[in-house]
C-alpha cells in the first residue's frame, strides 16, 4: 500500500493494520505529519501541529506493539482535535487573537477518552472565531480552504477538521456542532459527520454555555468510522446536566446491522427561509430515490420553523458574551453580537420560547422515523465571499444558508450528514438524516445502508493525491 492509500484508509482499517503489524504507529504518524507539512500551508486545516508530541507518542506505541496484545480500539491511529476544545499543555486559541498564547492546564473529557481509545493527537484544527461562523476565516490565521476547490470554504465552525480529513491530513477528527458546525463542513467536504443527541456526549469538566444546543461529535470518511468514534466519545460523566442511557448495542455494531423498513419524510423547503437551490434539492431527491429503491416508505412533507428563529438567534448569540473575551479582541460579527447586550430575562425567555418551538418540531416525528433534509440551502460560498457585508447583513446571510441545521440543535435530536455525489463544479453534495430523540442507532443503520448503494470512499480531492 502506498502512502497516499494509507493516508486515506479508514481509521478502523488503520487500527487493524497496526494490530497485524503491517504498519507501525510511527510510520502512520510520519505519513500524516509529512502531508500536513506539505499541504497545510495551502489548506489552513491546522492552527497548531503537535508534531514532536505526536512522534513521541507514536514511538512509544510502536515499542508497545512488541509486547502488548490487549490494545485499545484505535491504538496508534492519528486524530485531530478542534481548537475550541482544550488539550492539556497544547495551545488552544478558540479562533481568537485574544487566546493566541493560552496553554490550558486541563483538557475536555472527550480528549481524555480519545487518548484512552489509543489515538495519537496530531494537533488542533482551525475553527471560526469562538465557533460562531459557518466558514473558517479567522484573524490572524490564513483562511481554511476546501480541498476539492481552494477557492471555496470547507464550512465552519469545524472547517479545519473537515478540511483535514478530506485532504488526508488525519485519519478521523473530532468536531462540535452548535448550529450545523459538524454537518456543514462535512457537507462542504464530502464526509460523514454525526451530531449526537443532547446528553450523549459529555461537556465535562465544564459546561456548554448555551442551554444544550451545542455538542461534540465525529467527522470521518465512513459511517463505521464515525460510529466507532461516537462510541469512544459517548457516556455520562458525574454531574452532567443532560444524559442518556447507553444504547442497546454499540454504534459501531449498528453500522453493521440491516435497517428495518422505515417511514421517512423529506423536504427541500424550510419556511420561512425558502427553498433549497437546485444542487441541494437534487441531493435530497437523489437520496429519496435510493431510499425508495431500498424499500422504505417516503413522503414529502412541509416544515415551518418560524417560531424558532428569533429565540434560537438570541440563545446562540449569547455564546459570544459567555466566552468572556473582550469586545475589542473580536472580529466585527462577534463584536456586533456582543454589543446586543441581551439581559438575563431576555435570555431565559428565549430559552423558554426555543423549548416550546422544539416541542412542535419533535412532533413531526409522530409520523416519521427519519427526516431527510438538505444540510444547507445553497452550495458552499467562496472564501471571503461575505467579507464586504455589514455584520447584520452577514448574520442574515448565515441564517438563511444554514437554516436546515439549527432546529435540531434546539431539539437535541441526533443527525447524521453524509455525501451524495458532486455538483457540476466538482464540489460535494450532501444530505442530513434526522432521527427521533436519542435514536442514533436507526440513523447509523440507515446511513450505512445508503453508503452501500452509493459508495463514496473512493473519492479523493486531486490536490490531496498528488505527490
CATH topology: Amidase signature (AS) enzymes
State the shape. globular
Q: What share of residues are in beta strands?
A: 5-15%
How many domains, as an integer? 1
Structural class: alpha/beta
Measured as a percent range, the helix fraction is 25-40%
Spans of at least 5 consecutive residues whose pLDDT stays below 50 are none
CATH superfamily: Amidase signature (AS) domain
- What's the N-to-C terminus distance? 15 Å
Count of helices?
17
Could you describe the largest sheet, including whether it forms a barrel?
Answer: 11 strands, mixed
Number of strands: 14
Radius of gyration: 21 Å
What value does the average pLDDT take?
A: 96
CATH top level is: Alpha Beta
Strand order, sheet with most strands: 1-3-2-4-6-5-13-14-12-7-10
CATH architecture: Alpha-Beta Complex
Amino acid at each position: 500500500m502506498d502512502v497516499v492509500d494509507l493516508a486515506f484508509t479508514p481509521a478502523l482499517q488503520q487500527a487493524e493494520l497496526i494490530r497485524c503489524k503491517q504498519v507501525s504507529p510511527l510510520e502512520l504518524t510520519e505519513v500524516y505529519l509529512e502531508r500536513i507539512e506539505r499541504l497545510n500551508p495551502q489548506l489552513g486545516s491546522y492552527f497548531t501541529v503537535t508534531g514532536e508530541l505526536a512522534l513521541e507518542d507514536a514511538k512509544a506505541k510502536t515499542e508497545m506493539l512488541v509486547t502488548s496484545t490487549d490494545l485499545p480500539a484505535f491504538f496508534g491511529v492519528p486524530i485531530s482535535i478542534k481548537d475550541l476544545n482544550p488539550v492539556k499543555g497544547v495551545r488552544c486559541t478558540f479562533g481568537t487573537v485574544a487566546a493566541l498564547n493560552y496553554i490550558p492546564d486541563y483538557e475536555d473529557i472527550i480528549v481524555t477518552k480519545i487518548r484512552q481509545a489509543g489515538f495519537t493527537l496530531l494537533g488542533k484544527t482551525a475553527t471560526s472565531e469562538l465557533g460562531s461562523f459557518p466558514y473558517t476565516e479567522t484573524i490572524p490565521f490564513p483562511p481554511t480552504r476546501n480541498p476539492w476547490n481552494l477557492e471555496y470554504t470547507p464550512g465552519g465552525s469545524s472547517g479545519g477538521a473537515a478540511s483535514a480529513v478530506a485532504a488526508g491530513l488525519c485519519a478521523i477528527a473530532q468536531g462540535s456542532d452548535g448550529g450545523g458546525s459538524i454537518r456543514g463542513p462535512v457537507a462542504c467536504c464530502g464526509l460523514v459527520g454525526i451530531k449526537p443527541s443532547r446528553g450523549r456526549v459529555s461537556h465535562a469538566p465544564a459546561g456548554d454555555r448555551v442551554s444544550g444546543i451545542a455538542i461534540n461529535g465525529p467527522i470521518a470518511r465512513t459511517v463505521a468510522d464515525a460510529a466507532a468514534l461516537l462510541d469512544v466519545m459517548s457516556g455520562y460523566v458525574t454531574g452532567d446536566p443532560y444524559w442518556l442511557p447507553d444504547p442497546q448495542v454499540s454504534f459501531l455494531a449498528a453500522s453493521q446491522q440491516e435497517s428495518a423498513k422505515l417511514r421517512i419524510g423529506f423536504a427541500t423547503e424550510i419556511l420561512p427561509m425558502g427553498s433549497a437551490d437546485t444542487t441541494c434539492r437534487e441531493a435530497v431527491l437523489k437520496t429519496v430515490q435510493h431510499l425508495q429503491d431500498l424499500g422504505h416508505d417516503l413522503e414529502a412533507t412541509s416544515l415551518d420553523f418560524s417560531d424558532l428563529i428569533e429565540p434560537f438567534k438570541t440563545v446562540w448569540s449569547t455564546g459570544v458574551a459567555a466566552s468572556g473575551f473582550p469586545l475589542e479582541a473580536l472580529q466585527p460579527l462577534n463584536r456586533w453580537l456582543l454589543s446586543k447586550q441581551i439581559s438575563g430575562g431576555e435570555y431565559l425567555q428565549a430559552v423558554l420560547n426555543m423549548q416550546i418551538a422544539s416541542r412542535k418540531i419533535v412532533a413531526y416525528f409522530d409520523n416519521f422515523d427519519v427526516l431527510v433534509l438538505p444540510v444547507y440551502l445553497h452550495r458552499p460560498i467562496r472564501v471571503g465571499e461575505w467579507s464586504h457585508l455589514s455584520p447584520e447583513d452577514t448574520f442574515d446571510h448565515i441564517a438563511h444558508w444554514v437554516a436546515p441545521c439549527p432546529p435540531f440543535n434546539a431539539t437535541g435530536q441526533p443527525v447524521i450528514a453524509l455525501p451524495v455525489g458532486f455538483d457540476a463544479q466538482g464540489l460535494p453534495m450532501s444530505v442530513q438524516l434526522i432521527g427521533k430523540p436519542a435514536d442514533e442507532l436507526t440513523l447509523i443503520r440507515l446511513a450505512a445502508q445508503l453508503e452501500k448503494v452509493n459508495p463514496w470512499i473512493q473519492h479523493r480531492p486531486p490536490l490531496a493525491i498528488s505527490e
